[in-house]
């Protein structure tokens, strides 16, 4: 007879875990102990659970697996940024990054293996989407990156951004569950104020975030403030145009009382003129927002170039003069392909590239 796949023990709630122990004739509090090993102490191996006897550990091994992610190829940039591939239990690979900046230690995590949105300027966009990450795989990335912050900088992790591979709002339920665990006391107890989910703009799901009363922050990858231009670089704009996305964002801000961040990559001779700044101003003015102007990070295909620094500064100054908070974000970790949009598992998953 073929063996059934074992259950990933971390997919069980505390109650389910306690019930499993009671059913096998043991005490409910064993379930509590195992739960603490899994979530408080981040155990990835049943043998590490040293307050359980051998019989119990063997019973766990016979019936369950822990599908934890594993660090592969950790690289450190000369600006201190750390990136690693994370190997998933089924062989896929995603990437995550630690960005140190003074007191701020930011983890940048992935939400999907690859991405289905095909944004023209993004390395992940050249891959197909293989699958969604589970809530635990999202949580694991944060736990591991947090340990790098201690190990390399002796500092706590302060922020988390969902700006790695994938579109978080197309893996909605798992991203929300992952965040719930990150914020829960038996997980990492982080504040949702320190978490930012970045989306290419799925209007329906932005509204759902508001209806679900989320407390984390939202960033929108805008990059062009006219449909004509945005369609050229972000195919998702054809089904979620600026009017719909703008209306969804207003709904989000009204319902949550939050301010959104617009991310705007400045591309040379494409979206960095005064006319573009005016369009951007009229798009974001009615929305409670601020703008981060991002340097374009080359992804190797030569299709885009980064805008001149002087032009970027003028662009921001125009927005600021007109009452918009606008900041330039310089890229980090470029030498190890760890910067925004460069995460693509260059060495590992070329088979997924299209
Ligand atoms: N899918 C989500 C999150 C992943 S991308 C989103 O689109 O927001 C995280 C950020 O990096 C986005 O703002 C994205 O537009 C930006 N980005 C992608 N490619 C980039 C590149 N080559 N240079 C700079 N930023 C890039």
What is the topology, as strand order, of the major beta sheet?
3-4-5-6-9-10-11-12-13-14
Rg over C-alpha atoms, rounded to the nearest angstrom: 22 Å
Give the structural class: alpha/beta
Bound molecules: S-adenosyl-L-homocysteine
Uncertain residue ranges: 348-354
Number of domains: 2
Strand portion: 15-25%
Please count the helical segments: 11
Report the strand count. Answer: 14
Q: Per the principal axes of the C-alpha atoms, what is the gross shape?
A: elongated
Overall helicity: 25-40%
**Distance between the terminal alpha carbons, to the nearest Å?**
39 Å
| Known CATH architecture of the largest domain | Alpha-Beta Barrel
Mean pLDDT: 93
CATH topology of the largest domain: TIM Barrel
Determine and state the CATH class of the largest domain: Alpha Beta
Main sheet characteristics:
10 strands, mixed
Descriptors for this entry?
11 helices; 354 residues; two-stranded parallel sheet; elongated; binds S-adenosyl-L-homocysteine; alpha/beta; TIM Barrel; DNA polymerase, domain 1; 19% strand; 10-stranded mixed beta sheet
Describe the structure.
- The model is unreliable at 348-354 (pLDDT under 50).
- Strands 3-4-5-6-9-10-11-12-13-14 form a ten-stranded mixed β-sheet, with helices on one face.
- It has two domains: 7-65, Orthogonal Bundle (DNA polymerase, domain 1); 70-353, Aldolase class I (TIM Barrel), CATH 3.20.20.
- The longest helix is centred in the middle third of the chain and has 19 residues, at 135-153.
- It has 354 residues and is of the alpha/beta class.
- The protein starts with 6 loop residues before the first strand and ends in a 25-residue tail after the last strand.
- The protein contains eleven helices and 14 strands.
- The chain is elongated and about 70 Å long.
- Bound molecules: S-adenosyl-L-homocysteine (SAH).
- S-adenosyl-L-homocysteine binds next to strand 10 and strand 12.
């Amino acid at each position: 007879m073929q063996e059934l796949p074992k259950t990933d023990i971390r997919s069980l709630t505390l109650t389910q875990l306690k019930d499993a122990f009671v059913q096998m004739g043991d005490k409910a509090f064993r379930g509590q102990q195992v739960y603490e090993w899994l979530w408080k102490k981040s155990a990835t191996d049943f043998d590490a659970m040293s307050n359980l006897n051998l019989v119990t550990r063997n019973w766990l091994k016979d019936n369950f697996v822990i599908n934890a992610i594993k660090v592969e190829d950790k690289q450190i940039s000369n600006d201190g940024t750390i990136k690693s591939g994370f190997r998933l239990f089924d062989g896929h690979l995603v990437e995550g990054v630690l960005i140190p900046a003074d007191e701020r230690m930011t983890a940048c995590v992935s939400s999907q293996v690859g991405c289905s949105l095909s944004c023209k300027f993004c390395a992940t966009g050249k891959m197909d989407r293989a699958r969604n990450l589970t809530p635990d795989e999202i949580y694991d990335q944060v736990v591991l990156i947090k340990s790098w912050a201690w190990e390399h900088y002796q500092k706590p992790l302060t922020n988390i951004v969902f700006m790695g591979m994938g579109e978080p709002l197309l893996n909605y339920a798992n991203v929300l569950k992952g965040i719930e665990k990150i914020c829960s006391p038996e997980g990492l107890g982080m504040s949702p104020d320190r978490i930012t989910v970045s989306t290419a703009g799925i209007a329906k799901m932005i509204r759902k975030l508001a209806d679900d009363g989320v407390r984390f922050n939202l960033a929108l990858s805008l990059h062009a403030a006219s449909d004509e231009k945005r369609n050229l670089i972000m195919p998702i704009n054809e089904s979620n145009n600026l009017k719909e996305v703008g209306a969804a964002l207003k709904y989000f801000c009204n319902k949550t009382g939050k301010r959104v961040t617009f991310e705007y990559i400045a591309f040379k001779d494409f979206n960095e003129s005064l006319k573009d700044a005016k369009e951007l101003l009229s798009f974001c003015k009615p929305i409670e927002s601020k703008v981060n102007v991002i340097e374009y990070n080359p992804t190797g295909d030569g299709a885009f170039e980064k805008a001149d620094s002087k032009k970027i500064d003028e662009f921001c100054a125009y927005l600021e003069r007109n009452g918009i908070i606008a900041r330039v974000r310089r890229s980090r970790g470029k030498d190890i392909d760890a910067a925004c949009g460069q995460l693509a598992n260059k060495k590992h998953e070329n088979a997924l590239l299209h």
